[in-house]
Amino acid sequence: MDPLVIAVVALWVVVIALLIVVFALARQIGILFERVAPMGALMTDAGPKVGEASPRFDLMTLDGKPLAIGGASARNTLVFFLSTTCPVCKKLLPVLKSMRAAEGKSLDIVLASDGDHTAHQAFHRAAGLGDFPYVLSPDLGMTYRINRLPFAVLLDRQGVVRGKGLVNSREQLESLMNANDLGHASIQDWIKAETATLN
Fold this sequence. Notes:
This protein has helices spanning about 1-35, 85-105, 115-125, 140-145, 170-180, 185-199; strands at about 55-60, 65-70, 75-80, 105-115, 135, 150-155, 160-165. It is of the alpha/beta class.
């Protein structure tokens, strides 16, 4: 019986030690999440700045419908710049579809690019983007100074730029919406403001 009692006591000591280690690790993970700030869209200084009115563009969609970007509108507008050959852009298409389903009453999502009309029509069809307005406009990209993709610009109902940046993930894309809801140009600006109020 003595060896059995010793084994049970040893196992309990090991279980208690493991519980302490798990608790310590969980605490460290919590501290790490507090220290590591969320990564928002990567803003650039080029093009219209956040808080400035966007120029108005009167464009035609791939299917021949007129579409205005900039100026007053019924809903906020997210302009998502993409390319038919960009793998990250393709990865974010399901995110855009879910955003449209969740925010459809308050947000219009417009896909924008330039290049060959036929290639973009084929991409639009193959990716199942029939519900999204899709425009081809070199002027739109040049005005916003788009040099890397995917890039997104959020306009409010008055056509004012509320957020913009390079978006490589769902979190970065959603950060544009979150920053706008919080009343800041970016998540990074919000974190700076919150840190300043704490100090």
